[in-house]
């Protein structure tokens, strides 16, 4: 019996490895670059210690440190993570969401949004509430704010086609699912930032409902840049505005289940705070 089960197990491992390798090879350009930056940033947090450079303190979103000269923190904090566990969890949770978004909306759109309103709006919301309402100064870092932003967009689209799911005799609105996940994450990971996750989720809801759609770059501008620079011909794994699989900027498709799309809901990491 042992001789029969070992080949089957080995075949399963080989099959899973092949699927994983095929998936990684199909990742679009911006998704690859983002994951690489996250990994390199983690390496810098280790190497920086020998240079007397604390990468976490330098790049984390620290409300009292935000000023004209330190606005870079709005774009650096999603790439910096507290530890290797935090890094891996956020990469696993964020990569399939970002990969789908880039394939559906194009590489240039992804760059413009994730280095623009997808980072600045939730980041500034967090800073405003921390500084002027809570009068606190809790640093945050990690890509989980982006995870909840994309989940919020997905939830709105799902709600439009499937408004409720039923538990026992109760109809639960599907748009509330990421909000419940924020609460569960806060309960399971007390060091996570509930406010940071909530800020990302609210922005995701706003984009999903179309209120912030005007912040997306216009297609004519994207086509002009792509044509002038011949980005599709020069950059491997680049997704042009005419290759995208889901019309104009909107929200993530919900035709596939989360399991088919590979979204590891159980692995969503908290936007870790800087310190315990």
Automatic annotation (TrEMBL):
Cellular compartments per GO CC: membrane
Organism: Neurospora hispaniola
Pfam families: Rhomboid
Principal localisation: membrane
Enzyme class: hydrolase
Compartment(s) of residence: Membrane
Signal peptide (UniProt feature, chain positions): none
GO biological process, one term: proteolysis
EC number: 3.4.21.105
Keyword set includes Protease: yes
Catalytic activity annotation: Cleaves type-1 transmembrane domains using a catalytic dyad composed of serine and histidine that are contributed by different transmembrane domains
Gene3D superfamilies per UniProt: Rhomboid-like (1.20.1540.10)
Keywords recorded for this protein, A-Z: Hydrolase, Membrane, Protease, Transmembrane, Transmembrane helix
Name the record gives this protein: rhomboid protease
UniProt membrane topology term: Multi-pass membrane protein
